[in-house]
Write the structure tokens for this entry.
Amino acid sequence: MTWSRALKKAARSGLTIERTKLTPLIALRGAAGVALVIGLCLWRGDPTLAVSSAFGAYASGIVTFQRSMRPRPVLALAVAGALALSTFLGYLAAARLVSFVLLLAGWTLLAGMAWAIGPVAGLIGTQTVAIMLVTVTLPTSVLGALEHAALMFFGGLVQATLIVVLPVRPWGVQRDALADALADEADYARRLRHDPVAPFDPSPLMDARLASALTPRQARRRPVQLHGPRGLAERVRPVLASLADPVVGAPLEGPERDRARDLLGAAATVLDAVAHAVRHARPVRLPPEAMAVLEVPATGPMLHGAARRSAYRLISLLADAVELTDEPVRSTRPTTEAERGHLLRPSVPRLVPGALRSLHREARWSSHVLRHALRVSAVATAGYLLGTVLPFGHGYWAPLASVMVMRPDFAQTYSRGIARFIGTLVGVTVAGALMALAHPGAYVSGGLAVVSVGLMYLLMRTGVSVTSACGAAYVVFLLGLAGAGWEQTVQERVVLTLLGGLLAMLSYALFPAWETPKLRDRLAAWLEANGRYALAVFDLYATPAERRPRQIRDALLDSRAARAAWEESEARAEKEPVRHRGLSPASAKAAGAALATMGRVTMILEVHLPERDAAASPGATAFAFELRACLEEATQAVRERSALNWSELRDVWERWDAEDESRGVALRVADLQLDALDDLAEALSREPRTDDGADDGADRDAPDGGSR
């Protein structure tokens, strides 16, 4: 992709306004928190303190809208504490330019590295830098700095208190995550009726798993509806795939396929009903037609073999899902450690070791997080110095714009930069015109600021340009409350915001962290994780007595994580203006589809695991042994662009096929595994081709970014 095409796509993405579900009650609660702290400080008679406390409430309100499974009050207090610390340190260093620039560079570097912990931590770090740049311009003493920091924390404390006192949809995030997973499985069941090997994105199940991690206090208060359906959803998905698969499940044509389609349609109806009940905290309502289909017919087309077992298993799981969900929605029950049924969420102090490990893991030159941290630190420092030198005054607008738009990947940085400038231009123009025409007093300016922040909270998920316009108006009204002239604010904000956005975009062009060279590493990691998952399942056929379900579950989770890393990397690479470097977009899609098929057929085999007292399978033993030997060479070949060769594994399967007259499920799944591996080899053997109009010069100038 050329730079011009990449910039056009980034601009179109950034300026897109999405139609999304609004949350007016939550937005009203956040705006009320901002209004409360502004009103209290104005009542006390100090507008500058009102600005500090309002920024604390503003940032705490923003972070509670993020898709985090942490309790909302904890998020509000966390960002308030970080803001208070950054603001106090900024006040101490603001008296001297050198000391403040050094603090800004170091703090911004740490804030950039916070993306290694997670997106919410990265957003908190970004907010601390942005608020520090604004608030330290308000003159004060050391004691005044302590007061400003305390009021910053007070703003977050008010937001946290309102969340506790005025809850809106308690457990709403957890309910939505679980309901999304169930609804996605319902859609999967419908697609399987027409496409027996339809793909499935496990992301909703991964989100539901994150949502099920609870603190001990949360576990004691969790509604019954959230207690069991996630585990059932995990077990339903492979059963659906096993029933629909034409090799392992029902034949592709005939009365058995018709019966399988009916069961899949009924399963979709039941899963949708359960998802609706979980999302809205209501009892399950099932149509009688679906219940009739799930009855075992006395006559008529019947399933046989593995398909019959899958059908019985599906009916049982759906009945359990309805029974677990159709409970009194207000009931709770104590959960003991022995049967808690949830993942334990660590407390905030226990997060520190994990966060340090994440930072250490990303502290390498090839890491896109480290490059982002260095990039944003250099840009913030350069922007602040340029803003100081330029004759506009209030030079913090330039680094503020840079910090707010910069993200670890190219597409987000460019799309957010364009959207933020357009949104800022609109917000500053409208707010500046109101300030010029009306000359409002402190209370009216505070009221306009509250309206602006309320609109921003309400329209948070519609697009960056919309939220940037509301946020820009909020800052103009808030600084007008503290006595800043609107004319100066408008002129500075537009020019310096443009400068900050240009610095951010230029920094990524000069010091990129491209994902394209990493695609083969990501693909090799996914192949390796899929192989471990397949080996864990085949090993149970080789030694049924040594049944280890936990090992299979851990391997499945690793496979999902590797797939998510691949898909994220592929999505980023598609938007980058660099050459494909030996893995063209077509080859990448074909290779990803092959590995997704490999994971799907392994999941099908997991449905039909033998009992502990079953006889060992010599064929499965030999196949697992050869697969283990091939995997290491194959993953290395993917990284080094060598040819993949599965001929020896095919020979082992052919001997197994000749010796096994029963043609059991394991043998048939092994054949499907080989087909998927052959598809992978074919996808990677295609001659790499440069896309039409690709910018080879961009590739020559770009660093390797960790390619091996």
